[in-house]
């Protein structure tokens, strides 16, 4: 994650956490596809809203965030530790039934995304599933708040994921929604099964 993006989340952790109290509705379709009561890794836990829903649904959760400020807020909310971890620090091998990355890997520079996808692939058990959402676009850059986004097209996402792991299946789901900045945003989620 770019330093100015991490600085934004650390400096605005309290305001950012207060903004989202409703879990991502797309989370529940992901959970239905995971092994019941399985082990899930969340990359980019943020304030812990989705993490709380994952735990309440009976899953074992390893929550992580690159922002120490957000990790502390999420840990308090969850009543369990949230590890401060950058994506390139993921070293798990075949440990997770599911990996959930809501609007987090979208901050990874394009030049670093392939190696991160390979780490995600390695961390999943055979048959494990990843759900990762991205703001879509055609050129990487920063938003009005100074946060870096890789802004990939759905076709580019398909290519990145296909080229960086032997997946048994990859789906791309697209929709228009919003984000923290309250602007209309085009999104794409990668749903990939190892």
Automatic annotation (TrEMBL):
Keywords: Methyltransferase, Transferase. The keyword Ribonucleoprotein does not apply. The keyword Magnesium does not apply. It comes from the Bacteria. GO terms for biological process: methylation. One of its GO terms (molecular function) is methyltransferase activity. This is Class I SAM-dependent methyltransferase.
């Amino acid at each position: 994650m770019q330093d100015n993006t991490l600085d934004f989340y650390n400096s605005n952790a309290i305001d950012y956490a207060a903004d989202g109290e409703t879990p991502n509705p797309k989370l529940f379709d992901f959970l239905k596809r995971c092994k019941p009561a399985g082990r899930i890794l969340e990359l980019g836990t943020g304030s812990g809203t989705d993490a709380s829903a994952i735990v309440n649904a009976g899953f074992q959760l390893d929550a992580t965030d690159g922002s120490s400020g957000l990790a502390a807020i999420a840990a308090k909310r969850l009543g369990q530790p949230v590890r401060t971890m950058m994506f390139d620090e993921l070293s798990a091998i075949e440990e997770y039934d599911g990996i959930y990355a809501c609007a987090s890997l979208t901050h990874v520079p394009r030049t670093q995304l392939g190696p991160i996808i390979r780490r995600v692939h390695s961390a999943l058990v055979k048959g494990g599933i990843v759900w990762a959402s991205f703001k879509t676009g055609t050129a990487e850059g920063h938003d009005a708040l100074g946060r870096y986004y890789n802004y990939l097209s759905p076709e580019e996402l398909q290519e990145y994921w296909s080229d960086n792991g032997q997946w048994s299946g990859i789906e791309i789901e697209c929709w228009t929604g919003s984000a923290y900045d309250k602007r209309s945003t085009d999104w794409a989620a990668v749903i990939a099964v190892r």
